[in-house]
Amino acid sequence: MDIDVVFEVLRAFVTALILLYLWRVGKHKQLRQQRGWWQIIGGFSLILFASLLDITDNFSSLNQYVVIGKTHTESFLEKLVGYLGGFIMLFIGFSKWFPLVSKLQSTEAELRNKAAELESKILSRTSDLLKKNDELEQEKKLLAEAEKQIRQLAYYDPLTLLPNRRLLNDRLAQIMAASKRNSRYGALMFLDLDNFKSLNDAYGHAAGDLLLMEVARRITSCVREIDTVARFGGDEFVVILSDLDAGKAESAAQAGIVAEKIRAILAEPYVLEIQQTGKAGATVEHHCTSSIGVVLFINHEDSQEDIFKRADIAMYQAKDAGRNLIRFYDLKA
Description:
Strand content: 5-15%
Structural class: alpha+beta
Strand order of the largest sheet: 2-3-1-6-7
Number of helices: 9
Shape: rod-shaped
CATH topology of the largest domain: Alpha-Beta Plaits
CATH class of the largest domain: Alpha Beta
Number of domains: 2
Distance between the termini: 144 Å
Low-confidence stretches: 61-69
Mean pLDDT: 81
């Protein structure tokens, strides 16, 4: 087969493939509506038509089937019109299409830049939000700590860390309500230190503070977790025992055991390491006892005020009797 024939066949085949591809891609309506699309299709169609004429001209046996182009001149003109017309239409089509493609590429690049810019802003904003979240978490922790400190100051003695009067009243109300429900006695002890002032006078308030903290520790070691130990003020402490017995005598016996345990441990010597400004530290052994007044209560028979008053009366009876003693309030006395 002549090389020209092979070339013409390949050219027609490639042109046909291009047309087929463009036609299949042209199923998308948006693409067909682009300017220059149909000129490109028409241009490749004319080139294909001219290529087919070239092929038939190279096969003389097929000339009898060719309807158009009886002479070589007519055949040449037909091919010239096909190729020239095809290339002109391709030029027109691509000249309309390429600016659109360039514009689309520019738009695509712009969109990519916008997307990158947006992603950068999102990352920056996310970083800012994470930072703010960390700051809020830190503030939340600080607020929780501040709330804890406020509660500590509002309900606890800052020196001994025992409940103060406000929390003591609340605890007493709860224990009185429980006593009414279960018909069991409770007991309140009022403690006053017997030899506290002499320590303050000799070594100052720092020494007194050390002793008060040790007193708080010793009293707390003598009671149950359900009981309450509070600092009433100065060198005065209050102990509330809950859920004793349904019988008064049995409850008094139980309260007496706890009171005696407290009296005995508070009477033991106190060894205090005292630091004084401008002086060397000193170790002081101090003897300090306590006078304890005890009152029983049950079923809301008495008010809180009456309970405190009666325990205070019993405590002063212990002091008047010689100190380092326990006295129960006797309603008949």
